[in-house]
Every structure is written in structure tokens, then in C-alpha cells.
Amino acid sequence: MVLNKSRKPGGKNQIEENVEVGSTGGEKEEQMSAGRKQEAKEEQQSPSSKENLQCNENGLEGQFRTRNALRASFPPAGRRFTDRHSRSVVGTNYEKHGLPVQMWENGRPSETKNDCLVHEEHKCLEFPSKHSQFGSKQIQQIAVPDSQMNRPWVVTIVRAEGCAPHRRITMLLNRRAVQTFEQLLGDISEALGLSRWRKGHVRRLYTLRGREARSVSDFFRGDEFFIATSGKQPLSNDELQSLLEELFPEQKSNAGSRLPSPSTSNDVHDNALCSAVWCSKQRSVHGTCVRQASEPVQKEDLWIEKYSKEEISSPKEGRKARIEALQQMRTKVQQEEREGAKRWQQEKRIRERLELERVLRDQRDETWSTVEEENEGTSRVVDQWKKEEKRQRHCKDQCCQVDVEEQQRTISEEDKGNQRINNLGIGCWEQEQRKLSLNEIKGGPKEKDLKVKSDVEHKRKASQKERRHASSERWRDYEEHAHNRNRDENTEDSSKFILQDQDKIPESKVQGKKGRSKQLNGSRKQKPITAVRSRPIVSREKVDILYEIGRTIGHGNFAVVKECRRKHEVSQNGNWELAIKIVHKAKLTGHGDVLESEVELMSRLRHPNVVRLIEVLETVSEAFLVMEYVRGGDLFDAIAESVRFTERHAAAMVRDLCQALFYLHNHSVAHRDIKPENLLMQQNHDGSTTLKLADFGLAVHLTGPVYTVCGTPTYVAPEILTENGYGLEVDMWATGVIAYILLCGFPPFRSIRHDQYELFDQIQFGQYEFVTPFWDHISNVAKQLIQRLLVIDPSNRYTAHEALQHPWTMVCDSNDGMNIQREVTTNIQRHFSSRQRRRHGPVGSAV
Ligand SMILES: Nc1ncnc2c1ncn2[C@@H]1O[C@H](COP(=O)(O)OP(=O)(O)OP(=O)(O)O)[C@@H](O)[C@H]1O
After folding, report:
1. 787 lines ligand 1 (CB under 6 A)
2. Residue with CA nearest ligand 1 atom 1
3. What is the ipTM of this complex?
4. Among residues 702, 700, 713, which one has the least CA distance to residue 672?
5. Which residue intervals are annotated with compositional bias (Basic residues) in the record (predicted)?
């Protein structure tokens, strides 16, 4: 221990005590007293030591004096501070007087422990550097080399005030040149462009850790970076935070959260500081070169910051410990990366599994929704089917009731002398009975039979296609046959055909339809045309004796029609009153009893709208059918000339046709070849025309459904093509086609390419339309009648009686001078006021 005594200028001797850090306990006190004595001797012996001291201290003598007075307040250098001597107290007291205080712990500067051992830097007093041992802690006094203490100190100072970027300077300071802290602040102010003396000069200096440098020793403690403020108030946390973020932007993202408050403990400060600052500090302490704060942060530093500064901050063996710590951290990082990769793989598998489950769930949902939709669709169709069947049954029942009402009303009208109905030869009771019988025979399907009906429908449609193909083949064969024959006869009509086995119902089909046939036969009060009268074969000369044959008025497939007259009547009026149809028997080869059937039927028919057969003569090769002569020609020619007719005229013709068919059907006779060529137009004396039905070559007396495919393609009914058996309704279908043609001039079913398959498809599917503009000015009631006639289902198709009751066909009985549309409207109101409107739907509705 060395005791220095110096004499103050005032004459009062003051003893400066320099305490060398030595051993512990009482030894220390003894050493100190012994040291003082020794120093006193040395002072007396060597007065130059004071001069050396004063020279070395370079003007710090005054401080030494004051410090001597304070010596009792704090322990001497090298002593262990107790809790009573907190670092702040010690630091404040020492530093207040310009004595640098540095706390050391385990060989490193420490500012965190209040009870640590403190070593006063005695360099200013030139105390020798020694190692001391206090208590249980190893105190290693690391003396700052003189060279470091005396060399210029490069300091960077940033002014905190003002807008960013803040003013930043670098000063070269010499510790020995700085005498007071105020001098230091003044020098820094001038360097920052501020006045040393005026307001706004630098008042406070902070390290990057937020510690305020309040003395010269604080300033020269090793920090290279300071923040200068002019405020009287301490630097706030936010200001420091923002300033640090500005100075070290690369640390902003790495640091993560906000930097801690400088007012918090130094531990927290250290942990929160950016690694650059930390590294700078460490390196400066260890004497390495100082790294600039703005230097990019290395990955190693980031690891350090990220994983534990504490591990690095306390290496016992310096660099080696740091390297080991870094290796550990690298291992930790690699391990974490492996774990991360493993976790990522697991997450990937989980995501894939979830995605797969989602896809499967979507597929399952879609499948279920499809199944549900199908089930819904099926049930909806079944429900609609049931509703439709129920509605039809209900309608039919209602129809029966209405028909009864109509019958009663008709009877009353009949009683009043309704001549029109009587002329038709229809008893209303008979009509009602027939309708009731038909309804009973046709009868709507019961709900329990729906499934059976469905199966039957399915099978029927399957076989329908085959039969349609076969029938089409037959149509084609027939066309070729007719074409060849017409070519021979130089005739253009090739539309009619007859099959060899016509009207012969297959035995199986007869059995299958037996019940229905019975009911059908029983339901009608038929007046069957009886057997053919046997005719004697006469010579051609006799024919010529009886009749004078004139010019040809028409050609058919099997016959030629000429006008004729009885020879004994020629002398009376000279007119050709008759028409004679000459049938060449040779042409009938293969067609059986067509002639016999036609003659048989026509000979029995007596109706104003049916061409009357007067006499039949037959030679060996020919047959002569003498008929009434219908002078107006056939409807085909009329259509060809007029293109189309007025609605009134067309309605009249349709009505005539329906009356003829009503008559025929009432006798269970199906014409089966209704077409304009077979409808003759009689010119009446009053200028009106009466339509007469001719050509009964395909007519047949029905006793049940027939399956013969015959007719003319344009007019053939769909049930003929399906070959499931048909009846009288085929004539009504043809009536609908003719009505359509009368109103627009062209048929409803037509193939532009003259493809018979296409035509038959259209017929079977009922594909027709009221083409614009040809039908734009046609009344809806006319369209409605056609729609009721061109119905695929024969049971829902208008009968001849219903067609006659339709308002459109009834118009022709009214005054000719009235507007047809107005009349139709009146008739509609009368007609559809009854239940028939519910049955058939609104006027103009689609089929
Ligand atoms: N009674 C008649 N009065 C006036 N013209 C008639 C009469 N009968 C037939 N015709 C005319 O003769 C043409 C052919 O007559 P019809 O149709 O009976 O012969 P077809 O050989 O049986 O014909 P299809 O090939 O249709 O069987 C008719 O289109 C018609 O123009």
C-alpha cells in the first residue's frame, strides 16, 4: 500500500491515499497502515514523486484534494462493496469527482451487479495494477493499458433532436485532454454545430444501451457510440427506440419486438440491444477493432441474437467459448431445421390427407346429391304421372256427367225439333252410351297397375322401333311397287298401298285384345254391312248397252274413273249424271278382296257426304262401279288451285268430312284412306259445296283392333305405324291433317328431304307446328281443333262426334255473312262454359 501526501496550495497538507488492491481482511488494514508509513518515508525521501504525480495527472490535483474528504464515504479501491454501497451510490460519488469507476466480474466489465467487487481505475493516480482476491469471488483487475487510455478515442455521436436523418459526427477525443464533463459537452456541441454557451447545447449523452454518461469517466468507459440530446429531460424510451431503429435498420427486423426501455435494468437492456452493438462492445473490450454499427449483421450474429445471448455473453474462456457456443447453436439450428423439415413433412401428409378426405367427401356429396336428384326426379315423374292419370280419370268421369247433361239438354232440344242432330241420325242416348262404353273400355290406368304399365310401355317402345323399321321397309317396297305400276299406267298417284294380309288380325293379338274387342263390339250399336252380293259376270257389250261412258275424270292406283250416263236417260236430259270407275282386275292381283270389300261397303252406305254406289257390273277382266258423279272434282285439285281456303270454307269441309266419318264410324267402318284425293267436292245449286267421301278400297268394317299397315304416308296415323292395333281413330287423325292443309296449304308432317323415316318419326312423335306467318291469322279455335285431332294417343283424340261439336266446325251452320272470328268466339263461350273446357284445356294450348 502506498500513501501519498501532497501539500495543498493553502498550506494545509492533505494526504492522498492510494490503496493497492491486495489481500483480504485484517492483512489488508495492516498492509495499508504499513504502506502509509512507507509512503511517508518515500515522500520525504523523494519529493519529486509529487511532481511526477502532478505532471502525470495533468491538472487533476484539485480533484484529488476534494476526494480526500470523501474518502470516508466510500470504501477504498479494491474493497468489496456491500449492499449498502450500491453501484449507483458508489458510481455517483466516485464519478462525481471525476474518478472512473468500473465494476468487474469474472474478468469482464459488469454493470449489472450491485454487490460485485469494484475496482477503481487507479490509473489516474498511477496506482499499480495488481490482482486481488476478495471473498469468494475472484477479482481480476484488468488494468487498461496506458496506450489505450492515452490514445485518441474515436467516438460517434448522434444528435437525437430534429428530423431524421439525425446529425451524426465522429470525434477524435483524447481522454487526457478532457478535463471536465461540461468541457466535453461543450466540445460535442460545437462539433454538432451548436453553440457551446447558448441554449440548445448538448446536455445529455447516452450510450446505445440507454445508459446516460454523466461524467468523463462514463464517457470514456469504452463506448464508441453516443446519443446527444439538448433537452433537460431524460431521453424517452420511444425516442431512443426510434433513434436506434434509424441507426440500425438492419437490426429492426431481427430484433423483433421493440427495444426495451433504457430505464429498465441493464440486463434487460443488454438482451434487447441489437447484436451489432453487443458485438461492438465485446470486441472493444477485448481490444479488437471496433466494428461500425452500420455494418451488416452476419448470420453468426443473428444466431447469437436469436438463440441465446446469455450463452455467449458469459464465456469463461473467451473466443473458444464463443466458438463452442456457436457450434452448439449451429447444431441446435440444424436440429431445429431437421425437426422443422420433419414437422413440415408431417404437416404436408396431414394436408394431403385432409385434401383427399375433402375430395372424397365432395364426391360422396355429389353422388348423394345426384342420387337424391334422381330419386326426386323419379318420384316427381311418378307423381306427375299419377296426377295426370288421376286428372284424366277425373276428367273422364266429369265428361260422362257433362255428357249426360248434354244429353239431357240435347233431348230437350230434340224435343224442340233440333233438326240438325236428327239429321245426323244420332240418338243422344246412343251417343252417351257409346262414349260411356268407350271410356269404360279405354279406362284410365289404376295406380296399382302403374308399374305394370311402365313395364309394358318399355317393352312396347322396344319393339316399336323394330316394327317401325319393318314398316318403313314395307312403305318403301310399296312406293317402289306403286311407282312401277304408275309408270305403266302413266299415272302420278302412287300414294296408296295395300298389304296382302290386310285386316287379318294375328291370332295371338286377337287373343290379347279379345276382351277389348268384345267390349268394343258390344259397346257399339253396330249396323254391320252384310255379305257381298254375288254378282253375275256380264259381258262388256252389256255394259256398253247400259251405259255410255264418257271422258276420264280421274285416275287411281287400281282404276280409272270416267263420267257416264245411262243410255236410256241420255235422251232425257243429256247430262252425265254418273261416274263409272273401271277397275282392272289384273291390277288387283295379290290384293285379295279389295274390290269385294269396297263394293260391299259402298253398297250399304247412304249418307249425303259419302259417294253413293249405284250399280256394279263385272266382266271377266274388269269391274264397273257406277257411282254418283261428283262434279266439283276432288279436294286435292281444289287445294292445288286455291292453295288454302278461308276458315269458314275449310270448317264447312271439315264438318262434311266429320259427318261422313261419324256415319261410317257409327257403323264401325274405318275408311283408312282419308286424303284430299278421296274427298270429292259437289257443287250445289245454291253455290255451296258439299264434300263427299269416296274410294273405299281400304275401308274396313271393324270388329276389333286391326294391325294392317296401310294408308297414305302424309295422313297415316301414328298408331298404324306402331302396329299395336288401331281402330276408327285413324280417320280422325287424317281429318286433322286435312284441316291443317286446308288452312295453310301444306301438311303438318313433311320431310324436306323426302325421307320417309323422318316423316314417320315426326308423325309418331307428333312433331308439327303452326308455322309463321302462314298460321298467324288463323283463329285459335281452328288450331285448337287441329290440336285435338292430331293427338298421338287415339283415346285422347277427338272423335267425329266431338269434332262436330267443336265450335269451329259449327260455325259453318251459321249465317255466312258474319265474321268467322266473332262467331267462333261466341261458340267458344257457349262450348267451353261446360266441363269440356276442363277436359281439353284452354284454346290454343299445345298438344
Ligand atoms: N264419283 C266420282 N265423281 C267424280 N270423280 C270421281 C268419282 N270417283 C272418283 N273420282 C275421281 O277419280 C279419282 C280416282 O278415283 P278413286 O280414288 O276411287 O280410284 P282409286 O284407284 O281407287 O284410287 P286410289 O288409288 O286412291 O285407290 C279420284 O281422285 C277422283 O278425282
Report:
1. no
2. 629
3. 0.96
4. 700
5. 1-10
